Amino acid sequence: MAPHILVTNDDGIDSPGLHALALALSEVGDVTVVAPDRNWSISGHQKTLARFLRADPYELPHAGVRAFAASGSPADCVAMAAMGLLERSLDLVVSGINKGPNLGQDITYSGTVAATFEAAIFGYPAVAVSLDSRDPTASFQDAAQVAARIARRVLVEGLPRHSLLNINVPSLPATDWKGLQVTRLGRRDYLDTLARGVDPSGRPYYWITGEAPLGDIETSGTDIWAVHHGYVSVTPIRLDMTDHHLLDQVRAWNLES
Length: 257
Ligand code: MN
Prior knowledge:
By secondary structure, this protein is α/β, with parallel strands linked by helices.
């Protein structure tokens, strides 16, 4: 039987990146989409416990892919699919294709990647896919093709429990890509600023704003370097965030005394 692939995202079920991904993956297996009914970008790993959730059948632009629009977060979509919304068990979870990169420390903010964290917690192999472009007219076709190729390989090779792959695709046509690099996370430099104002009732408000983040494009081997230099970046990520280098150092602090 063909593998069963869950496709979700954080940009919402009407996003062309999701549609391109679902279509490309339908060549790899049986695709079911469970995606949020609105945009959850930069929502991190949120789980909804205090409110009920809906998951209504949804008509995608192309036939042959069953879809549900859910009222929860990307992680909620994965959790619902894993815990009984779908009668068939999952072989792989793929999240994206996100409009905009998820590089370096972005993955701690990303709803796209949070969906794959949730999948990894449930023990499914998972792949997050993002396009390094904020252009609303950007094409997702080439990114969808490379995502499908990597997904096919993950289904063969498997991934260790609690690990996932984070893919970022440069905003160039595939013919201009330099190749593919397996990378580690790089360092993001955020340019956020705090805007202040006063609302009509005289109460102050604050707004976190600023330019899109930069990053360390000098250090090779990182995701930020790879995408900046025109490579597709594939970063293996694991949920175990223990700082193994720091264990002995903190033990030497003798915190018990
Ligand atoms: Mn997004």
